[in-house]
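Here is the promised in-class demo. Please do not try to memorize the tokens; focus on the logic of going from shape to residues.
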């Protein structure tokens, strides 16, 4: 579910604050750089506010943020809605006992980890990241939370690359997006 059709000038400001860098990290890719959004306090606040408005009355107890840019958006959302923030990290980054979930990359696999005991069965969670591309990381985060009987209410991202159809990998978990973007340079 995207924020399309929302009559809210904040969406246009957010979209225009995202710098697009052609041919990064490789030729043909249009990289969506959120660092420019973060430099604009009003637009950064608007981004957080849109997510807070969506989740503040949904009985969410966990905001799970995907490393690394989910760590930027997740904590302020969690604080504003009265939920805890749970970091979902790359392997060997968390100091305590972890559980992990493997996911496929274009070439090979990777894992995402979470501390054992960070969440409890029956809690309601949202999963936050800056961008969804192929959906591999978000789907691994969903599986990891569901393994410990947490209800994943929704995934939320600032940007979606719709050409890669990442939302299709999330199964029945809804996806909330603020901005849709292109991934390839038009030749």
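The designed amino acids, position by position:
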């Amino acid at each position: 579910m995207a924020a399309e059709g929302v009559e809210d000038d904040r969406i246009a400001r957010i979209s225009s604050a995202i710098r697009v860098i052609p041919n990064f990290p490789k030729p043909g890719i249009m990289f969506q750089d959120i660092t420019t959004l973060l430099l604009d306090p009003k637009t950064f606040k608007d981004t957080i506010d849109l997510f807070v408005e969506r989740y503040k009355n949904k009985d969410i107890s966990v905001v799970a943020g995907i490393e690394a840019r989910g760590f930027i958006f997740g904590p302020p959302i969690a604080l504003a809605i009265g939920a805890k923030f749970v970091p979902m990290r790359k392997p060997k980054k968390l100091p305590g006992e972890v559980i992990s979930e493997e996911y496929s990359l274009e070439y090979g696999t990777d894992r995402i980890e979470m501390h054992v005991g960070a969440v409890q069965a029956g809690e309601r969670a949202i999963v936050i990241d800056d961008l969804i591309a192929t959906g591999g990381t978000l789907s691994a985060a969903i599986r990891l939370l569901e393994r410990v009987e947490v209800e994943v209410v929704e995934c939320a991202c600032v940007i979606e690359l719709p050409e890669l159809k990442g939302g299709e990998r999330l199964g029945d978990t809804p996806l909330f997006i603020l901005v849709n973007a292109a991934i390839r340079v038009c030749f």
